[in-house]
Specification:
By secondary structure, the protein is of the alpha/beta class. It has seven helices and 22 strands. Its EC number is 1.-.-.-.
Amino acid sequence: MSGKTTKQRVAVIGAGPSGLIALKHLSAFPDLFGPVVFEQNFWPGGLWQYTDMTGNDEFGLAVNSALYNNLQVNIPKEIMEIPGFPFPKEWNKSYITRQQCLEYLNMFADHFNLRKHIRFHTHVRNVQPLKEVSENGKSKWLLTFSPVNQMSEVKQEKFDAVFVCNGHDSNPYIPDIAGMDEFQGRKIHSKWFRFEEHFDGLKVAVLGCHFSGEDISMLVAKFAKKVIVCHRRKTEEFPPSFPKEIEQRPPFVRMTKDSVVFPDGSSEKVDAIIFCTGYRYSFPFLNDGLITIKDERIEPIYKHMVHIEHQNLIFFGIPRQLPYFPHFHEMAKFAIKLLAGKITLPSEEEMRAESEAEYQARLKEGKPPIFAHYMGDGHRQTEFNAQIAKLGGFEPLSPVIQMIWDDVMDERYMNIINTHEFDYLVTGPSSYRCLTPSKAKSRVSKAENVVRK
C-alpha cells in the first residue's frame, strides 16, 4: 500500500481485541504508520483479562473485566476467528472458555510482535483535536495521559490519528428503580458477577434476560433456592427451551427492604438481585463536544465507525451483537486505507443524511432508539460488512460467518441448555457442518446451502 510521504503517528486507545487487531494492521505498514497503544492494564486482552476483583482496582480505577469464572464464549470459535490467524487445531470444541480466548489473543499479540508498541499501565485522560493540521489536512490530536501508579504525573503527546478501542462493556447500566436504596439484600450488576456458588440457598431475582441474563440465571439456578428472571421479551422471542424451574415475571417496578414488587402489585421476597441490564457507551477521555450520546445513539458517526467532522478519529467498538473479532479485522482494513488516503468518503452532509436515514429505518422497523448500533438481527451485520468492504475496495467476510450465526441463534432458541455442546466445522466460504447433530433439537436454519452430515 503506497500512501503519504510522512509517517502518521496513530494513537490506539485500548489493547483489547479491537486494539490488538487494529495494531496488527497498522504495524504491517511501518513506512506509513507509527502506532502507539495505550493500555490501562498490565497485559493485553481487554475484557478477556479476567480478575476476581470487582469495583475499583488498587489504583482507584474501574476494573474493566466483565467476565465470570465459568464463562464459555456464547458463539462458536469458527465465527470468532481472526482471519488469517486460526485457533489451535487441538482445540476441538467449538465453544471455548474465557481462558482459551485470552490465550488466543496473547498468541496473536506474540505472533505479530505487537507488545513492543503497547504502553501498559497507562491511563488516557483526554483526547482533543488541535488547530494544527497534518500533511493530509486533518487535525492533529493531543493525548493527555498518566502512569496508573503515578496519576499525578501528567504527560502529553501529539498524534495524526486516533483509534478508539476501549470497547462497550465497561460502563454498567442499572435502572433507577423506586426503593432501590431500601433493599437490604445483595444487588450487583452482571459486570461484577463472578461465582454462581455465592448464591447458594438464596432467592434471586435477575432483571434482564438476553445473553448474559439467560446464562447467569441458568448458572445461579444450580445453587439458588429459587431464581426469578424478570424481563419484557415477547413470548415468541423467548427461548421455549429455557428451564421451566426458572420462574419468569415482568420487570419489577419497586423494591422494598426484602422484596421486589411487580406491575400488578404482587411481590416476591428475594435475597439478591442481579442486574443483567447491559452497558452504556462511555468515552470519558474524549474532549467535551466531540460526540453526543442520546438514547445510546452516538453522533456524528458514519458507518458506526468514522467521526464525520474528524475523519481521523475512528471507533472500533460501537456496533453491538456480531462476531466481533472478524468484524474488527474488517474495520481495521477499512480504517488504515482511510488514513492512507485510499478511500474517499462522501461529503459531511451526505454522511449525516445517510446515517440519519439508517437510524430512521431502524425506528420504522420498530426498533427502540437504543438499537441505533445493534447488528444482531436479520442480516444486518453482513450488510454492515458489505458496505465498508465496498467503500474500502476489499472482499467482505465469507458468507459462512452469517450462516453459522443464524444457525447458532436458532439452536440457542430451541435448545438453550445444550447450546455449548455443539461443534462445527467450516467446509467452505458458504458451507459448514454440525459435527454433533445428534444433540440438536433444531437443524432448520435461516441460512442456505448448508452442508449437514
